[in-house]
Amino acid sequence: MKTTQIRSLLLPVLILLLLAALAPACGSSQTDPIALTLTPLSDSLRQTITALAGDAGGDDTLQTAVAVATQRAGEIYATQTSNAALSEPARLATATAIAPVVAELPQYGLDIGDGYVAWLHAPVTIELSTYMSNAYVNDYPLITAADFVLAADIRMDTVGSMSGCGFMFRSNGDADEPDQYSVLITRVAGGYMAFMALANGNIANFKYFYPKDFDRSFSWFNNETNRLAVVARGTILKMYTNGHLVAEVDITLPPVGPVPVLPQFELPPGATDQQKADYDNVYDHYDSAIDLINGQIAQAMKNYSAGKSVYTDGLLGMIAFNQSGNMKCEFENAWLFVLNR
């Protein structure tokens, strides 16, 4: 398992890119069938995907869609595939690996014919202990995306309730003054989701949502897992937790005031000692969370008109933000599906 720590508040992605370009990616290689999910697929592989996706009858339409998607993927990754010829067992292993993606896409109103699997990510952990710090990780840093689905199981262990885990995307990779978007989930007030845009390293847009309003299964306790997914298509972003649509954001629209009133939250019946401790921790950070959110909204409203914050393509990966103390974000079952333009 990989741990990455970066102490700059501005996500120095460029350094990571240079390092990644010089070293083999963790958990992937030219001969790893899982890493080669974009290799052109045979008829038997397409049939295997169809069956694994729940269509044992082998629907011709789905098979055709898979064939088109994988043909496009093969063209994009022609250099990679020319260097690694997979045997039929390896192809079947790859079909098994991407089957969860095929099965999950309908939750977001999509299917395999709408694009192609760009990568399946090995589990990674980000740990931070520096005040107001953050970190970024991606084993496939040279793959960019405009329209896509990015999903991962996220397990948080945080002290400051505004510390969060999530995704960064459409980033220009500037080490000092990045342009980029991010979506984070936190433990604030029983669960809080934030969308943020940076323009020249400054907050230029900010929107907030409460997953519990739409997803009763969302858990804000430490060391519990939620699945976060972001669907980006043009100027519209859709954010999901545990398969439930939480928010839809038009990136061209400005931030909206006034400052938020955080919802009240309660312990569930029969709460464990650890859950009670988590509750006390979040309650203790309630006022500081409001102050931090208010500051982010005020900065976004000030900077929105001054800086461009509509981005169409760029780098992407998993991120963590630490408000205070020690925190850990664990990402599992993460994948990127690039949508056809």
Please provide a written account of the structure.
This protein is of the alpha+beta class and 341 residues long. 26% of the residues lie in helices and 30% in strands. Strands 1, 2, 3, 5, 10, 11, 12 and 14 form an eight-stranded mixed sheet that branches. Helix 2 packs across helix 3 (60-76) and helix 2 (43-52) runs parallel beside helix 5 (88-104). It is globular and about 45 Å long.
The biggest sheet amounts to: 8 strands, mixed
**For the terminal residues, how far apart are their CA atoms?**
34 Å
Counted by DSSP, the helix tally is 7
Helix fraction by DSSP (H/I, runs of at least 4)? 25-40%
Query: pLDDT under 50 segments (min length 5)?
Result: 2-59, 61-87
Approximate shape: globular
Order of helices and strands: EHHHHHEEEEEEEEEEEHHEE
Portion in beta strands: 25-35%
The whole-angstrom Rg is: 20 Å
